[in-house]
Amino acid sequence: MQCSWKSMVLLALASIAIQYTAIRTFSSKPLSLLCPVGLATTGHAVNCSLRDLTRLGQRTHILILATTRSGSSFVGQLFNQHPEVFYLFEPLYHVQLALLPRLAQSRNLAERRVMLGAARDLLRSLFHCHLSSLESYIRPRPSNHSTDKLFRRGASRSLCSPPVCEVPLGLEEQSLVLSDEGECVKRCGPLNVSLAADACRAKHHAAIKTVRIPQISDLRALIEDPRLNLKVVQLVRDPRGILASRIETFRDTYRLWRLWRATGHRPHNLDLGQINTVCEDFLRSVSLGLARPPWLRGRYMLLRYEDLARFPLQKTRELYSFLGLPLDRSVEDWIINNTRGSSDLSSRQKFTTVRDSAANAENWRVKLSFDMVVYTQTACQPLLELLGYKTVFQARELRNLSYSLVEDRTAPPFFLNN
Ligand SMILES: *[C@@H]1O[C@H](CO)[C@@H](O)[C@H](O)[C@H]1NC(C)=O
Ligand SMILES: *[C@@H]1O[C@H](CO)[C@@H](O)[C@H](O)[C@H]1NC(C)=O
Ligand SMILES: *[C@@H]1O[C@H](CO)[C@@H](O)[C@H](O)[C@H]1NC(C)=O
Ligand SMILES: *[C@@H]1O[C@H](CO)[C@@H](O)[C@H](O)[C@H]1NC(C)=O
Ligand SMILES: *[C@@H]1O[C@H](CO)[C@@H](O)[C@H](O)[C@H]1NC(C)=O
């Protein structure tokens, strides 16, 4: 079927208008009425030259802007579990690996700029479902649009379920087995990138999680791109919590911090670089977000991990309301299964890391020594104030978990959603 000349013009106008007005009313009355070729729902093989434009107008693109060990996997799941969201876990990993093989976080300005430029271009392509753009960064380079080297492919449900992955098993068995990331990779075989792109087009929305974009200002070109309809969720966490978690996870990089904890003496050559970077990036980015520049209106939401851990359902509802998307039952079920909200202690997921991270947002208070806490909070003082994390002055305060270190910051304008 073909679109008539008139409906094409209407579509074009509507698509433009959509960028500047609330999309909710439009998306509840799909534009596909004008061009009834399936659009977002049927994926490829749609014969309408304005298909892309229309589809993109309807879609919401979500970027989770985070840093390592700030709870971003948990937030990613809030989208991964939604049946209408195509979710990618950290695709920028490949950009960093290809462009800056040795440096985790380059402090060289020129290198950083090149990385960020490439990262932005890739994000734009991925949101538009041009997944083949990712191939030039994957090592070894995929041949025939097929690869078994996609980083954390198993973390993306869409990439582990039909039609991308047809596992020769019964349905129940399939969903059980593939709840495990490693199992997905083992059973699904190499990823067919063309099929993955089709799966992306077939979903109404797309979400990408990244820890490789330092600040919201780095995303300005994407946020201002009227074809993209990008909304950014900046996830933050108490830097003392990030530190404690990184010490456990990145044992080499944070070796000296472990030494400090074990011996009680701060090593002379302790590097505050990483934690300073976290605090500076957060401080600049959040300050900008809260200053509400016109280009960020309606496109930026600040989310504290601690709030999410304490009130997962409520915060997730606020999140979806900011995005203007309906919250799906399966997301709520997942939250109930994977947080303290669950009273079923025999639940299969009881011991998964996800569950732990939600339950233990504040367990850094018993993992770091008092000296380490003081040292870190001194370095990050302005940020702690901005985000509403309390400084501790005595070990007793630190260890007394009934004394909360998280100030209530739920009211606007702190919690920015318009
Ligand atoms: C699109 O429509 C034209 C004209 O009707 C037709 O010739 C062509 O085969 C169609 N293409 C697809 C992919 O359906
Ligand atoms: C590419 O994939 C197609 C379809 O699976 C196959 O027929 C072809 O031989 C493959 N080509 C290469 C170079 O692997
Ligand atoms: C990937 O899927 C496409 C679409 O179904 C198919 O044409 C192609 O042969 C597949 N490629 C490989 C390498 O299997
Ligand atoms: C939640 O847990 C129940 C019982 O273990 C299970 O049947 C259900 O599939 C789970 N739902 C999700 C979304 O994880
Ligand atoms: C722990 O904190 C609570 C709440 O601030 C306080 O009531 C209690 O006295 C504190 N306990 C100790 C042992 O300091």
UniProtKB/TrEMBL annotation:
Keyword set, alphabetical order: Carbohydrate metabolism, Glycoprotein, Golgi apparatus, Membrane, Signal, Signal-anchor, Transferase, Transmembrane, Transmembrane helix
InterPro entries (alphabetical): Carbohydrate_sulfotransferase (IPR016469), Gal/GlcNAc/GalNAc_ST (IPR051135), P-loop_NTPase (IPR027417), Sulfotransferase_dom (IPR000863)
Domain called Sulfotransferase: residue spans: 60-386
One MF annotation (Gene Ontology) recorded for this entry: N-acetylglucosamine 6-O-sulfotransferase activity
Localization per record: Golgi apparatus membrane
One record GO biological process: sulfur compound metabolic process
Range of residues in the leader sequence: 1-22
Membrane topology reported for the UniProt record: Single-pass type II membrane protein
A Pfam family the protein falls into: Sulfotransfer_1
Family: Belongs to the sulfotransferase 1 family. Gal/GlcNAc/GalNAc subfamily.
A cellular component annotation (GO) from this entry: Golgi membrane
Protein name per UniProt: Sulfotransferase
Superkingdom of origin: Eukaryota
Major enzyme class: transferase
Primary location class: Golgi
UniProt-listed Enzyme Commission number(s): 2.8.2.-
